[in-house]
Amino acid sequence: MFTDRQSMMAYIILVVLLNGFFSVNMLEKNKRFYSSEIDKQLSVIDNLRTELQEFYKYGVVVDVTMYQPVYPQTDNTPNITADGTRIRISKASDYKFVALSRNLLKRWGGPFDYGDYILIKGTPGEVKDGIYQVKDTMNSKWVNMVDILESTDVKPYKYANAQIFKTTSWTLQ
User: What is the model's pTM?
Assistant: First the structure.
């Protein structure tokens, strides 16, 4: 009635069907488990984002320094900022552009994006307090830093413990 070949094929088909049945059931069970775990993690992430936004309302404490559009302080295109804006090197101080450390930029999880306006407060004598526009990115070794774009004739400076706030426009000044 059944040859050895037919028996072997029937056995293989039975094994494949049983394996498929158990695999589908196991996958469904794991899907339900991991789906609930993912939902829990997404809830935790949402709560952390809310807390982080609350934190950013009070400003971020940063060190403020300056940079000039010259090759050792920038890449090999000192007249082009990270967002693609072209500048006149001789008029760099007139632009009121800043570079932010990567931890402060949105693409690396921070609150600021290219084109955003920020308010810097807390520099000694309020000499560099004011509204600036985010146009550039600092080297990845820096954290919680703001670099103000300055012309080549400006002497270097550094101010510790200033605060930056996100503003809606440049008109707050």
Answer: 0.68
